[in-house]
Amino acid sequence: MRQHLFAANWKMYKTPEESTSFIQTFKDLLPPATKAEAVLFPSTTSLPASVQAVSGTSIAIGAQTMHWLDAGAYTGETSPTMLLAVGCTHVLIGHSERRQYFNETDTTVNLKLKSALAHSLIPIVCVGEHLAEREAGRTSNVLELQVSIALEGIDPSTASPIVFAYEPVWAIGTGRTATPEIAEDAHKLIRRFIADTLGSDLAHTTRILYGGSVKPDNAGSLCCLEDVDGALVGGASLDPNSFADIVRNATC
Ligand code: PGA
Fold first, then answer.
1. Which pTM was predicted?
2. Taking residues 80-93, what's their average pLDDT?
3. What is the spatial distance between Cα 43 and Cα 141, in angstroms, rounded to a whole number?
4. For residue 174, what pLDDT band results from cuts at 50, 70 and 90?
5. What share of the chain is helix, strand, coil (3-state, %, to 5)?
6. CB–CB of 174/213 below 8 Å?
7. Where do runs of H (alpha helix) occur along 30-105?
8. Residue among 10, 214, 239 whose CB has most ligand 1 atoms within 8 A, to mutate
C-alpha cells in the first residue's frame, strides 16, 4: 500500500511569523489518526521557524529547491547539508517554475536527485508537459524523457524514498485541472517509465502525486484514483483550512 502524501508548496509566500501561524492552526485541523503524510514547503527563510513549529506533530518540512553540492561559490544557493542542519526532511526538485524561470533542466534535476538521496532527504521530483506539448500529442514523450533523465544512474537499491509529482504545466495556478482520466493516464505512464528504469517492484511502490489547481472540492476525485497517491498543492495550501480540507477529502 502506498501511503498518501499531501505537499503544500508555499512558493514565495509567508514570512516566518506567517508560517508559524499557519502551522499552529493547521496542526489542530488535521484528523488525529490520519493515514496520510503532510509535508509543508515554506520559503528558505521560514524553514527554521517552521521546523520548530511542527515539533511534536507528524507534519514534516521540506525545501522548495536546493543545490546539489555541499558547499561552494554559488551565490544565493542553499546546499543539502544546510537544509539538513535546519531540520528539513524533504526537498522539491525540478518544479516547473524552477525549470521555466531559473533554467533548471532534466540534467540538473538528475544531479539534485542523486544528491538528495545521498543526503537522506526525501525528494519529490516534479514532471509535466506544457499545453503545446499536450496538444501536439507529445505528453508521453515528454514524461518519458523527464523521468528517464531524472533517474539516470540511480541505483535501484537507493531509490525507494523517491516521490514523483505529475504537474501538467497548463494546470498550475491556472484554475484548470486535469480531468481524472488525464491524471490517471499520465500517472500510469509515469509508473511505466519508472519501471523501465528502476524495475516494476519499485514502480509499484513509488508514490506519484498530482499537482495543478488542486482544491478541496476536486481533491477527492483526483487523488482517489488507482495511480494517484496524494497531491502537491500551491495556491490552495496557503490557507490552513483549505489545505486541511484537501487532506481530509482526499485521504482514501
Ligand atoms: P497550484 O500550484 O496548486 O497553485 O496550481 C501547484 C504547484 O505549483 O505545485
1. 0.97
2. 98
3. 32
4. confident
5. 50, 15, 40
6. yes
7. 47-54, 80-85, 96-101
8. 214
Ligand 1 centre distance from Cα of residue 112 (Å)? 21
Summarize pLDDT for 103-150 with one digit per residue, the tens. Answer: 999 999 999 999 999 999 999 999 999 999 999 999 999 999 999 999
Q: Are strands 37-41 and 60-63 parallel, antiparallel or unpaired?
A: parallel
Q: Whose CA is nearest to atom 6 of ligand 1?
A: 234
Closest CA to 107 of 68, 81, 74, 161: 68
- What is the rounded distance in angstroms from the CA atom of residue 73 to the CA atom of residue 119? 20
The span from the CA of 166 to the CA of 193, in Å, is 13
What CA–CA distances, in Å, run from 153 to 110, 148, 149, 156, 182? 9, 10, 9, 9, 30
| Residue 104 φ/ψ, nearest 5 degrees | -75, 140
Q: Which of the residues 95, 104, 119, 133 is marked catalytic?
A: 95
Measured from the CB, is residue 173 less than 6 Å from ligand 1?
Answer: yes
pLDDT band at 250 (very low <50, low <70, confident <90, very high): confident
Which ligand 1 atom is at minimum distance from the Cα of 236? Answer: 3
Within a 13 Å sphere around the CA of 209, how many CA atoms are in the beta-carbon half? 34
